[in-house]
Amino acid sequence: MLRLAVAAIAVMVTLPATAAEAPATGANVRSVTYTQGTYRQTGPHAWGEFDTSGKQTNAFVEDARDEWSVFLFDPARNVRVQIDLYRKKIRYTENGGSYADLYDVTGSAGAATANPPARPSPPLASSNGFWNNSPVRYGVGAAGGNLAGVLRGVEGGAISGQGDANLRCPEAARAVNGTWTGQWHQGQGGFPGLCLVRFEH
To answer: Which of 42, 81, 128, 171 sits at 20 to 30 Å (Cα–Cα) from 95?
Structure first.
């Protein structure tokens, strides 16, 4: 009897993961729920917000994705939404203001594929020429310097220059409990800009 139970457990452990078991990430998420409703992808670059009865209340264009987030834009209201799966928050800004947490994410579902294509990780401080350096008063100086902790590129939204980086990167770093190093990279090819963030060991 014991051997039969052990054999059954072994079979269960060796079964391959199915698409339904794949966790939702920024790369593959298709819907998220919060207490008052749902955000759901409705087309290749289209999302809708739906209330608890299933009625669509708002429409969005998908701006960008990164490892943990999807960024949506509603041009009719000049509203932007970040679905942040790392912190499990839905964040909101309007008319170019700062993002603020709006809802807690209570559930999420990814695409029907167990292995979605992943966006390559951005180069970090060891890659000369990738990161732009801000003045010392905004960060810790040039890439490749003596930086303690772990460095990681964090999405910072639409960064087209130093002014955008100065506004967006400190907030992006605080949102993930890190510290902006003062370095940034302009978004290209439909991807958002990146901020080089330090995480303490």
So the answer is: 42
Beta-bridge partners for 33: 38, 107
pLDDT tens per residue, range 96-120: 778 889 999 999 998 764 444 444 4
Rounded CA-CA distance 70/27 in Å is 8
Q: Is 12 helix (H, G, I), strand (E, B) or coil?
A: helix
Amino acid letter, 174: R
Scan for tokens 């391959």, then name that residue.
Answer: 16
Distances 192 to 34, 157, 165 between C-alpha atoms, Å: 25, 5, 12
Burial (Cβ within 10 Å: 0-12, 13-18, ≥19) of residue 107: exposed
The answer to whether 20 touches 111, Cβ cutoff 8 Å, is no
User: Measured between alpha carbons, how far apart are the two ends of the chain, in Å?
Assistant: 48
For residue 184, the model assigns a pLDDT of 83
Q: Quote the CA–CA distance of 191 and 187 in Å, as a whole number.
A: 5
Instruction: Give the type of residue at 22.
Output: A
